[in-house]
Amino acid sequence: MNIQAFLSEKISVAMCAAGAPADSEPLVRQSAKVQFGDYQANGVMGAAKKMGIPPRQLAEKILEKLDITDVADKVEIAGPGFINIFLSPQWVAKQAEDALADEHLNVTPVEPQTIVIDYSSPNVAKQMHVGHLRSTIIGDASARTLSFLGHNVVRANHLGDWGTQFGMLIAYLEKKQNENAADMALSDLEEFYREAKKHYDEDEVFAERARNYVVKLQSGDEYCRTMWRKLVDITMQQNQVTYQRLNVTLTEDDIMGESLYNPMLAGIVADLKAKGLAVESEGATVVFLDEYKNKEGEPMGVIVQKKDGGYLYTTTDIACAKYRHETLHADRVLYYIDSRQHQHLMQAWTIVRKAGYIPDSMSLEHHMFGMMLGKDGRPFKTRSGGTIRLTDLLDEAQERARALIAEKNPDMDKDELNNVARVVGIGAVKYADLSKNRTTDYIFDWDLMLSFEGNTAPYMQYAYTRVASIFKRADIDENALTQPIALTQSHERQLALRLVQFDETIMQVSREGTPHVMCAYLYDLAQTFSGFYENCPILSAEDENTRQSRLKLARLTARTLKQGLDTLGIETVDRM
């Protein structure tokens, strides 16, 4: 159950019954301090102002109408008109029992929507690098979260697989095939791309052939399409290995590259002209937007077709939104693209809505993110200043994790050590990113991310193994726990309350695309369990009823930690 939503509804009904304006909405949130109750409701001040009465007077009227006697032990007014709610331990225990008995931890059912998530977006004939990490793992965390809640999630990998560079790449692939060296060259995509560009810049005959291949490719020439397809396939085969290492749910079936929308572009430009939205300007086709002004205060022009007939990213993004409505029937589209692209997307979506390509009910959301920085505060690069390949970063993460785990567990066999190193190393890289607010830049620091202390993946993974080990050590059959949860100690109550707040946490993450909120919740849950574990003996409890109750709380903690980490795409192990 979503306690926050439940209490908000109850207080809203009471506010209306107390005579507050119909549009009055109480803001109910978890209290930061226990002495202020478990939840605190405000919004009374605004409603009281509209009614012309003191806030405390309205709060008193609300309490007279508020019907939560079966939920709360105490409700009181604080300060100028805040309403503090102290939940009943018996009611909290019941919510914990319901969560433990339910496969989905008693998370509130949702009205399923079709949600398209645009993320990762690597380029053909280029290795994925650290710049692709944030889009890939934050987008995947969002996809996992929304899928868990029951939405129809469409993963869209907007592959950079179209454009003038493909003439150059096709010409170079042809050259290497003639030399019987194509496969060897394509094993290192970065080198392949660099050599193709070098030939294009230095060999005019090669460059002319490349330009001709662009025209042929865009007109559907079978030979060029075959060569282009080979470049795409080789790239995505290598990327798929990286996705699997990252425990990311993208597959080859999720590729929706720029080429998918190419057949739509001419029609869109013609339609924008017909609707009077696009006009000719200096040989190009431009949409002038009053919503965006240049330095002179004039409407900003957004080019949708260049004077040479070529199209731009804006045109593709217009087609993309149109396709996601007409073909995918999306209710909501989430774009995980870095913050530098925000204005570009806003302009494209303004044109989309002006043209009537999508309904008002369809939500387009830019879930932007900042950059990954090195300790020097600059974009994270190699010591020589080059771009770090994602596969190299993951190799180093596993090597560092392997050394740490081997030091802690010198007797662990090789296969288990390699698996734990993989889970911990990859998890550390992902969690270090996901635990930061995605809208800000963050500092990449190996020592911090692999620490077993603080809000890190190793700490969280170890917290899970610690809870799970209770059942392994005592060889307990979870189905034999038949006694109810009873919350007689403060640490028991605190843990149970934090456990049943998983629902409102995951709902917030699903609305805002903020995995750091889930990370903060799980970290706090792990710390709350530590306090419970230290103060409330489990296996040596004073009686069987208490023992079973505490074992149930431990079991629910393990399940919640595991499920929460799973929504982040982070694996767990039984021993570390």
UniProtKB/TrEMBL annotation:
Among its keywords, does the record have Cytoplasm? yes
Signal peptide residues are none
Give every DALR anticodon binding domain span. 460-576
**Keyword match Protein biosynthesis:** yes
Question: Its catalytic activity?
Answer: tRNA(Arg) + L-arginine + ATP = L-arginyl-tRNA(Arg) + AMP + diphosphate
What Gene Ontology terms describe what this protein does at the molecular function level?
arginine-tRNA ligase activity
Motif 'HIGH' region covers: 122-132
Ranges where the Arginyl tRNA synthetase N-terminal domain occurs: 1-87
Q: What is its main location?
A: cytoplasm
UniProt keywords, alphabetically: Aminoacyl-tRNA synthetase, ATP-binding, Cytoplasm, Ligase, Nucleotide-binding, Protein biosynthesis
The protein's Enzyme Commission number? 6.1.1.19
Its localization reads: Cytoplasm
Return the InterPro entries for the record. Answer: aa-tRNA-synth_I_CS (IPR001412), Arg-tRNA-ligase (IPR001278), Arg-tRNA-synth_N (IPR005148), Arg-tRNA-synth_N_sf (IPR036695), ArgRS_core (IPR035684), DALR_anticod-bd (IPR008909), Rossmann-like_a/b/a_fold (IPR014729), tRNAsynth_Ia_anticodon-bd (IPR009080)
Top-level class of the enzyme under EC nomenclature = ligase
The Swiss-Prot or TrEMBL record describes its family as follows: Belongs to the class-I aminoacyl-tRNA synthetase family.
Q: Quaternary form?
A: Monomer.
Q: What is the name attached to this protein's record?
A: Arginine--tRNA ligase
Which species does this protein come from? Proteus cibi
Taxonomic path: Bacteria, Pseudomonadati, Pseudomonadota, Gammaproteobacteria, Enterobacterales
Q: By which gene is this protein encoded? A: argS
